[in-house]
Design a protein that fits this description.
It is built from 17 helices and no strands. By secondary structure, the protein is mainly alpha-helical. Residues 1-6 and 469-494 have low confidence and may be disordered.
């Protein structure tokens, strides 16, 4: 393994934060452009959903493999390749002639983004050898990511109002190109201590399953009953094969044994459900503000900026609470914040007061701001240090997949109920979606409690002990084999 040779760790941290800001902004900035984009490209609501889900699904599905490839072939090299692909995809999206081209180019963009997120975190880890300084660096990195996601719709609103929907794909391109240059100048190459094997079959099956799930949710009802049933059967068989295949691999894409740890399982569920709530909320709120209330993209962005501001204020509090009293309290507050944001809108109309909308956005900001920092804390509480990177990657995958599912599920509920004039019918059509967010928030709070009980933490400790014991047995077996080989070769030497 080669160590990271950097001139200044803080410069490396700044570069990695800039790269992850590109990913975070692109996670949410397109939401605000959807109504205008849909109108200009003559796209359906379902097609507009795919511009979000194509990005989220590919990004989430490739995170783990990207990290493994970077550990094997070099993290700096992987980050530069990812930034370059992301830039190319962003610029290509800005000139997409049809909705189909846009969805396809979002896949290219997400492929590059998947190489940036886990790799940047690994580079930061290599640059900061002191554990305390590394922990603070991770905190800054996480804050940059959360802030960029929160600010995406607000920044996008002003861009769409000033230069049209294509401009939302311009904003990150120069930043990504700058990161490519700075990475070449200031970031040294580094590799993982041990190169993990790739699992291409598991990776392909996972991608296929996620796409199939989204396709069923978004377009299933329009494909015909027979095709829909066939897709469900294929999905079930594919899921069984994926579990069987992963259980047989020495280094699987997703280590199923991790889920024997209750805190880890709870963290993945919380990440999945919590980001589903946030993704669905932003998708529906964006369409409501522009299509029903008649706000311009810039005015809608100002509304959404209230939630972003709350996220900025709450995120540091979440980290402090998690450090002081554990992750249970901030995660329960996150769940209740999501639930309250939905409750306030379950009777939404086209003339609901601005005060109600702002109150909902404040509650949403509290939920989203409290969510991100403690989730990784819970996920890693049940893992040995040697597996913490993979565990964090799986939790991050849960975040991205959750956003995709939130847009797919809540978007499908809204579009199914949307019959007639969009401006008139949209408020009532959103009610089912808000109730789903309420249920999701309650589930997040419940899982936060269940995943941090004494029994759950004791079970996690047992899993951690068993994995360490298993690793010691493997090492001992290797030593015995080596001793036997030496013994067998000794007579020949003599």
């Amino acid at each position: 393994m080669s160590s990271s040779r950097t001139l200044r760790p803080r410069v490396v941290l700044a570069i990695c934060c800039l790269s992850v800001v590109c990913v975070g902004i692109d996670n949410t900035i397109v939401n605000i452009a959807l109504p205008t984009l849909r109108h200009d490209l003559h796209a359906s609501f379902a097609a507009a959903q795919w511009t979000i889900d194509a990005y989220q699904i590919v990004l989430g599905a490739l995170l783990i493999s990207s990290g493994a490839i970077a550990d094997r072939y070099g993290r700096r090299r992987m980050l530069q390749i990812g930034l370059s692909i992301f830039t190319l995809g962003s610029l290509a999206c800005s000139v997409a002639p049809t909705i189909g081209w846009l969805v396809g180019l979002r896949v290219l963009q997400a492929t590059g983004a998947s190489m940036m997120n886990p790799v940047a975190l690994a580079i930061v880890s290599a640059a900061y050898t002191d554990p305390n300084r590394r922990a603070r660096a991770f905190g800054l990195w996480s804050s940059a990511y959360g802030l960029s996601m929160a600010l995406g719709p607000s920044v996008g609103g002003f861009l769409v109002g000033a230069a049209g929907w294509r401009s939302v794909f311009w904003v990150t391109a120069p930043v990504a190109l700058l990161c490519v240059l700075l990475t070449a100048l200031f970031v040294g190459e580094s590799h993982g201590q041990t190169a993990r094997r790739l699992d291409p079959i598991g990776q392909m099956v996972l991608c296929g399953l996620l796409v199939l799930v989204a396709l069923l949710i978004i377009d299933g009802s329009t494909l015909g009953r027979i095709i829909e049933i066939g897709m469900i059967v294929v999905l079930a068989l594919g899921a069984v094969f994926f579990l069987w295949w992963e259980a047989r691999q020495q280094q699987p894409l997703i280590d199923l044994r991790f889920f024997r740890s209750p805190p880890f399982s709870a963290a993945v569920v919380i990440a999945l459900i919590g980001t589903a709530c946030s993704g669905g909320y932003l998708w529906v709120m964006t369409f409501y503000l522009q299509s029903s209330r008649g706000l311009s993209p810039a005015a809608a962005g100002l509304f959404l900026a209230v939630g972003a501001l709350v996220v900025v204020l709450v995120a540091p509090v979440s980290g402090a609470l998690a450090a002081h009293s554990g992750p249970r309290l901030p995660l329960m507050v996150a769940g209740l914040g999501f639930a309250l944001s939905g409750v306030l809108l379950t009777s939404l109309t086209g003339t609901s007061t601005d005060l109600r909308l702002l109150a909902s956005l404040v509650a949403f900001g509290i939920g989203f701001g409290m969510l991100n920092a403690p989730v990784t804390n819970v996920a890693l509480s049940g893992m040995p240090a040697s597996r913490s990177g993979v565990a964090a990657a799986i939790a991050s995958t849960g975040r991205q997949v959750g956003q995709a599912l939130g847009v797919a599920v809540i978007g499908a509920l809204v579009t199914h109920a949307l019959v007639g004039d969009v401006a008139v019918k949209l408020p009532a059509a959103t009610h089912a979606g808000w109730w789903v967010i309420v249920a999701g928030g309650i589930l997040v709070a419940a899982m936060a409690w269940l995943g941090t009980t004494k029994g759950a933490l004791a079970a996690a400790a047992r899993v951690r002990y068993e994995r360490r014991a298993g690793a010691n047995v493997i090492r001992a077996s290797v030593d015995v084999a080596q001793d036997a080989k030496v013994g067998a070769e000794a007579p020949h030497r003599s």
